[in-house]
Amino acid sequence: MTFTQAGLRVVAATILVGIVLAGCGGRLGARGADAADSGAGPVAATASPSGATDGGHGSAEPSASAEPSASAPPASTPKPTPKPTPVPTPDLDALDQLINQLDAALAADATATTDEGSPQ
Amino acid sequence: MNRSMFNHRTGLRLTALATAIVLAGTVGVGSALAARPAATPDTAATTDARHGVGRCAPLWLTARAEPTVENWEAVGLCEIDRRLETLSVLQARVDASAVLTDVHERALDEILSSTQSGLRALRAEIEADTTLAELREDITSIFEDYRVYALVVRQVWLVVGDDTVDVTADGFDTAADRLEAAIDAAEAAGKDIGDARAHLAAMIRHVEAARDEVDGDAEAVLALTPADWNDESAQPILREARQSLADARGHLRAAIAEARQVLAEIKE
User: Is the pLDDT of residue A21 over 70?
Assistant: First the structure.
């Protein structure tokens, strides 16, 4: 009875250690994938199925997770269409205003002489 | 006591805030008003009744009816004062001008300042005159030695006009470059540009014609003196300068019409 209890404890402890180690292994595998491309972050980890499921092997394939766009199909990323450079049009209203100032100058010139008067 | 102090302080703060808002508004309005003369031409020099020939007319009538030293002195001082006011308006116009060349601005400054100082000296002489003969001579001098309206006002406006033509023509040069680029872009995009290039060429011809019209006019006008007006040699030069300015305006209006045609052609 006592022997059986001791055996059960050993078995339970072994199972616990196994579970804990298995969990750490999964986390280490995930960290390995992140560590391979720290700049990609969680998007890179989820974008690459192998990185998520292969555990420790994810770190062995940095190129697959580091360049997700290279492995993506061309149809999924729409190409930006180049916009034509806008050609600036001249400000004709400003030129119109300058021409209107000539009206004022000519009008002032026309009335000036009548303001002179005469000493006679 | 404390509450009244609080209310007093709050009131002061509110008053200060309101004052600041009013001051800010006043400054804004003041700035806007200050900016107006540069944006719009000031024709007050010759259209304002205060500076017109009618301002001193009642004094002339009185002096003729009752020719005393006092009455003729009043005529002389009135004629000088309205000229000095006109010259101040012209000086402000010249100072605010964005189109005058440095050389033309300096020349006009010299004409205006020498005319002002001469009239001020003459004013002092008129105040010191004690006989009708002295007053008659000095009052005649107001007209014949200065020709403020017959010559100086016209010098300012014609030279400002000539320089406005040049500045406008320069603006058309920039417009021509942009219109040409717009035509090229429209053509490259497969659009039918119609007569756009012909309209652009016509615009450029009108701009050059406008430049040619006023070429050298400002220098000729600035060289005139009251003596030239008195011997009637100034009048044809002023007439020609005025006609050239009017013709240049016609060419620039035609140039604007051609430019709008270019835009219409490439947008269709």
Answer: no
Helix or strand holding residue B194 (H, E): none
C-alpha distance across the termini of chain A, in Å: 148
- B231: tokens are 């011997």
Distance from CA of A82 to the nearest CA of B (A): 14
Q: How far is CA B98 from CA B16, B102, B238, in A?
A: 39, 10, 23
Residue of chain B whose alpha carbon sits nearest to that of A116: B149
Task: State how far the Cα of A117 lies from the Cα of B52, in Å rounded to an integer.
Answer: 9
**How does DSSP classify residue A39?**
T
CB contact under 8 A, B165 and A102: yes
| Token pair 């001008």 in the structure block, residue | B97
Query: Contact B38/B96 with Cβ under 8 angstroms?
Result: yes
Q: Where are the domains of chain A?
A: 1-69
3-state secondary structure of B145: coil
Under a CB-based contact definition with an 8 Å cutoff, are residues B37 and A101 in contact?
Answer: no
Q: Which tens digits make up the pLDDT trace of A97-119?
A: 999 999 999 999 998 988 998 88
Residue A117 amino acid letter:
G
Distance from C-alpha of A36 to C-alpha of B40, rounded to nearest angstrom: 69
> Is B143–A94 a contact, with Cβ atoms under 8 angstroms apart?
no
For residue B13, give every residue at least 6 positions away whose Cβ sits within 8 Å of its Cβ, in sequence order, or none.
none
CB B41 within 8 A of CB A105: yes
ipTM of predicted assembly, 2 dp: 0.77
Please give the model's pTM, rounded to 2 decimal places: 0.67
pLDDT for position A22: 57
Which stretches of chain B score pLDDT less than 70?
1-50, 268
